[in-house]
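Before going further, learn to read the protein records used in this course. The integers have meaning only within a learned vocabulary of local backbone shapes. To see the layout at work, look at the sequence and tokens printed below.
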Amino acid sequence: MSELAEIELFPSAAPVEKPTTMVLEGEIEKGDLPQIFEMLFRVAHRGATRIVIDFDGVTHFDFRGVKPLVQRAEVFRKAGGDIKLSGLSPYLHAIFRSAGGAGAFDFYAQKDDAVSAFARGVFVSG
């Protein structure tokens, strides 16, 4: 069972918002995906459009969650934001590649790198 280990919310007070970070942990199974997508929905309704999802503590991510996550990233991009991913192990990268998510996200080794990329406007794919 997974859990959202940490959520750092930075409400948008200025036109350029600070990124919202979601830190995930454990094995993310099919039954855990609705909770993650609900959290993205809630932060979006709070006005957050720049999201970093930190996978550093994730040991498994169900492949069925990749395409819905790609779809949500597209919605955030249409709103002027994005979803960036950090901390993926080689195993998790393989899951994202095989499920069609490799070209859909910017991947970063560390959460802080992904957060900084929003400030610089840098896009790195992998």
